[in-house]
Amino acid sequence: MTTQDEKVVAGRKSRRGFLKAGATAAVAGAALAMPNISRAQTQTFKMQGSWGAKDVFNEFAEDYVKRVNDMGGGRVKIDYLIGGAVVHPFSVFDAVHQGVLDGAHTVTVYWYGKHKAASLFGTGPVFGFNANEGLGWIHNGGGKELFEELQTQIMKVNIKSFFAMPMPTQPLGWFKKEIKSAADLKGLKYRTVGLAADLFQALGVAVSQLPGGEIVPAMERGRIDGFEFNNPTSDRRFGAQDVAKIYMMGSHHQATEYFEIMFNRTKFNALAKEQQAIMQYAAEAVSSANEWKAFDYYSKDLVELREKDKVQVKRTPKDVFDAQIKAWDGLIAQLGQDPFMKKVMDSQKEWVKRVVYYSLFNATDYRGAYEHHFGKLAL
After folding, report:
1. Is residue 321, in this structure, part of any structural domain at all?
2. DSSP labels for 55-67?
3. Model pLDDT, residue 283
4. Domain hosting residue 321, numbered range
5. Model-level pTM?
6. Do residues 215 and 291 both lie within one domain?
7. What distance in Å separates the CA atoms of residue 246 and residue 223, rounded to the nearest whole number?
């Protein structure tokens, strides 16, 4: 064999040795890393929703649970229960804090009685932003940091939360007589929740705060004269059309809202980082999935309410919107006396002034295009 040939053979042996050593190191590294993944004990979370079995919100909650369980790879999973299975739908906050439940699918407004700032993260004053822009504030405008401050420093609760699903504007609601002006609201017995309750009380309304499953029976028994819940699909599924035939669309009382997906913080913190990431990113993923599904469901059910159930679908008059804005002004002044609530609202205003300016100034004439193709929009 020539000297050159000897060099080639030596080179091949050297490369084979390098590859073999690399492969050995990779296997060794995998052996060290794998126990954290393949041998990890399954972490199971018992989660309850605030929703009845037929409510579309229950389906939205199940969409989140499915994403966690699909991505969890058997290492983290959620067992989901409908509202009332363990605790009252309005009591999931306490149950998660105390560890009676490991998690809940709810809305912040259901526990705003513990601190009114809760309602600012879903059903607060109307500054001009929609729910998608509101989620933008939560994720990129300081909202999640302020909510963390509320949970850990002000209320000192053992809860970790994520937000999902930018809800469309909530209708003024269901009535036996059409609301033609703000004067028609005075003296009405009406169901709503959160800061919206304060808003309607300022408009002369007698408010009852009830969970979804109690609304229709209350209407049947005359405990309330009108109500709002959230959307055409939820409303239709629990039989709103059977107790009222006037459906007023549009309102400033809950122009933006999102689901709060909460976990017992101690149990959440005990998860591996990749499992925590699954919980978080599943919320972000389902936020879009829920919204897209809502476009389909809500629009179909509004048509069914009008055409099949013979509901008179009406647009809330401008007089009511104007009265609500003025009532919000008074509430903003009152709420702003609390330094933390003022800080939250100031943060929202700073976000809205910049972001909504861009959105409004740049938006095309969607209504003009719609009316060009489908005729004038009846209001």
Report:
1. yes
2. SHHHHHHHHHHHH
3. 98
4. 173-254+313-360
5. 0.86
6. no
7. 18
